Amino acid sequence: MIGKEVVARRKRAGLTQRELARLINVKPNTMSQYENGVRKIPLDVLANVAKVLKCSVMDLAYEEMGIAAAPETERLITDGRPAEPKEGELMFADPLDNEIVALLKDLDKIAKEKVITYMRDQKVITGYYRAVRERG
Hints:
The protein is an all-alpha fold. The protein has helices at 2-12, 17-23, 28-35, 43-52, 57-61, 95-105, 109-135, and strands at residues 77-78, 81-82. 58% of the residues lie in helices and 3% in strands. Strands 1-2 form a two-stranded antiparallel ribbon. Helix 2 (17-23) packs across helix 3. It is globular and about 50 Å long.
């Protein structure tokens, strides 16, 4: 459901429902209806939501489009090994990275959210220590 994906990404972005509503120029009640699936999100509004949340419309609507996982974490796996890349698809230099991406595909939504949150936190911490090192 698009609304659930919007909620998850909104929370990761540190926005309240009211703040997101203001940023996309809709009433807070309307935003609540979008997130709870009471009201369908028009495509132009969905595009605005994606822009504010720094993702694509596909990232928000992958379930409705019949895609098994969000495009950013999708990866096929066979016999315990990552599948060969399709034409134009990138493979990581480190095979462990390919395996990690493949394993992410098999996680449920809650586990994916936890992994992504952890990874974002690590990125922030790494940036902080890099800045400290550059100053010192």
